[in-house]
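ARCHIVE CARD
CATEGORY: sequence design from structure
SOURCE FIELD: tokenized fold
FIELD CONTENT:
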């Protein structure tokens, strides 16, 4: 995980670490942030809105109330994400739709999807007597 520095971080100057995973309900990409110095949760970069129209390599970035705007600016500045110019309603705010541009992050998400699919219970039709 890359350390990301930004103004106004709770763990400043240590920064935050970006963690990739997937939402269990629909296997969309999910990103959270943890403090780099102590591993404590910092916040969620992505939110899961099931009816949002997203491609496999896109996330719905949390609305401004969830993460400081300067941190989101720093995250975009890493080149790991690209704004698409689209947005979606998230609670009382609007979340921007970002494309995941970093091959390593895309690989982490793909691996998380494989693990999540393997851990899902297999549904089988009951045999009729």
């Amino acid at each position: 995980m890359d350390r990301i520095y930004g103004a106004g971080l709770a763990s400043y100057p240590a920064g935050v670490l970006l963690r990739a995973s997937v939402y269990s309900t629909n296997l969309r990409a999910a990103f959270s942030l943890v403090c780099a110095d102590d591993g404590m949760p910092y916040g969620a970069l992505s939110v899961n809105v099931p009816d949002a129209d997203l491609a496999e390599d896109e996330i719905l970035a949390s609305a401004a109330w969830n993460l400081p705007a300067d941190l989101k600016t720093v995250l975009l500045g890493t080149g790991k994400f690209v704004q698409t110019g689209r947005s979606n309603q998230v609670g009382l705010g609007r979340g921007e739709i970002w494309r995941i541009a970093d091959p390593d992050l895309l690989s982490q998400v793909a691996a998380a999807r494989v693990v999540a699919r393997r851990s899902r219970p297999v549904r089988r039709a009951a045999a009729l007597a």
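CARD ANNOTATION: Residues 20 and 108 are 6 Å apart (CA to CA). The first strand starts at residue 3 and ends at 4.
SHELF: design records, drawer C
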